[in-house]
Amino acid sequence: MVLAILRRASTTAGHETYSSGLVSTQAPEGPPGLLAGVSFLILRVAVLWAAWFLIFLFTTPILLSMMSFQVALLSAGSAVVSAWTTPNAAPRPVATSLVSVIVTDLPSTKATVKLYFYNIKDNFLKRGSYTLLKYVKPAGSKQITLPVDLPNGEWAVALTQDTNNNDLVDKNFLGIPTEPYAFSNNVRPTLAAPAFDECKFMVSGAAKVVTISMKK
Predict the structure, then answer these.
(1) 111-162 pLDDT, tens per residue?
(2) Strand order in the sheet with 96-104
(3) Phi/psi of residue 53, each to 5°?
(4) Strand 96-104 and strand 208-213: pairing?
(5) CB contact set of 17 (below 8 Å; sequence gap of 6+)
(6) Organism's domain of life (predicted)?
(7) Same domain, yes or no: 126 and 189
(8) Residue 205: what pLDDT?
(9) Can you tell me the distance from the alpha carbon of 60 to that of 83, in angstroms, rounded to the nearest whole number?
(10) Could you list the residue range(s) of the whole structural domain that residue 62 is in?
(11) Quick check: helix, strand or coil at residue 13?
(12) Which residues are 154's β-sheet partners?
């Protein structure tokens, strides 16, 4: 009976407390549940993945920019090295032939004769589109001879004599020259200017003589 009085069992909030005099002993609680542990693990994994994603998101543009910069530097360096080490190819020499242009029947023995040389069909007789321009003074003669080296190919010559020494080709209101003029192959235009094909001659290796008369 004494033991029954000293030992009293009481049940509170789902667990038992054993009391014996001044000593009180409480049963320990059980470990956390399995579901709580799994949830915590999933949360940690999610946080780690989010951190790696943010790092990747912010560092990728920087890495790409650095790679592009390195590629640009390598390309520029290669270009500089190529320009430094590769000499420019020397242009091929153009084959030329000697052509002697003889102009006869000059109206003036003093006025300057202008000879316009063309080797491009579409430029023929267009203002300022000649390939070569030569000035020759007759020096008291009605005939001049002009030796000139021309690249091989098709050429045409138009010439005028500046009888009033104004350094112009004087024309009337129809655009027809009022000063003496002539063309290679001695073409005599009537109503329109001649075509390149009418006046052309071939320059190819051997020396050539082109005779043009200014007699109308």
Answers:
(1) 999 999 999 999 999 999 999 999 999 989 999 999 999 999 999 999 999 9
(2) 144-151, 96-104, 208-213
(3) -65, -45
(4) parallel
(5) 10, 24, 25, 26
(6) Bacteria
(7) yes
(8) 86
(9) 35
(10) 38-71
(11) coil
(12) 202
